[in-house]
Amino acid sequence: MPPSFRDALVKEGGSVFHITLGLEGCLWVFLPSQWTRVNEELHEVARGMKDKSKARAIERHLLGNEKESEVDELGRVLIPQALKEAADLKKDVVVVGAGKKIEIWDRARWTAYSKKEAAPSFKKLAKDIYL
């Protein structure tokens, strides 16, 4: 885990990260405070959805696959086997900061996604923004 994310965990008095299945084949990692907000926001969105079966499916995907994981003395987090398999994590992984969460990707999947989706999307967006 990146030092800044570990420091944030200590700062908020937490002892575990919350890991769940993300989108596009990655895992999402949240601080405890962020996980609480995700739960609240997800329930609110689900309540407003007309198709309740889809709302339940989204909740099951994100909430039903969540596992807590402690940080060891070397700053590593053990990823449960079921989540490793679901994200097809092999030997080489990439840890990506993504706003209020961290994403963990299999390196080959990240490279393919980045080339096919992320880079073209950013290129289109870059035409309309000025930083």
Structure, briefly:
49% of the residues lie in helices and 20% in strands.
Instruction: Let me know the CATH homologous superfamily.
Output: Transcriptional regulator MraZ domain
Average of the residue pLDDT scores: 88
Supply the helix-strand structural class: alpha+beta
CA-to-CA gap between the ends? Answer: 29 Å
The first-level CATH class is given as Alpha Beta
CATH topology: Chemotaxis protein chec
User: What is the CATH architecture annotation?
Assistant: 3-Layer(aba) Sandwich
Helix content: 40-55%
**Element order: H for helix, E for strand:** HEEHHEHEEH
Structural Rg: 16 Å
- In what range is the share of β-strand residues? 15-25%
Please summarize the sheet with the most strands: 5 strands, antiparallel
How many domain regions? 1
Number of helices: 5
Shape, principal axes of CA atoms: globular
- Strand adjacency order, main sheet: 3-1-2-5-4
Task: Write the SSE topology.
Elements: H1 3-11, E1 16-21, E2 27-30, H2 32-48, H3 52-63, E3 67-70, H4 81-86, E4 93-98, E5 101-106, H5 107-126
Antiparallel strand pairs: 1-2, 1-3, 2-5, 4-5
Helix pairs in contact: 2-3
Structure description:
This protein has helices at residues 3-11, 32-48, 52-63, 81-86, 107-126; strands at 16-21, 27-30, 67-70, 93-98, 101-106. The chain has 131 residues and is α+β, with helices and mostly antiparallel strands. The protein has one domain: Transcriptional regulator MraZ domain (Chemotaxis protein chec). A hairpin with a 2-residue loop joins strand 4 (93-98) and strand 5. Helix 2 packs antiparallel against helix 3 (52-63). The two termini are 29 Å apart. The mean pLDDT is 88.
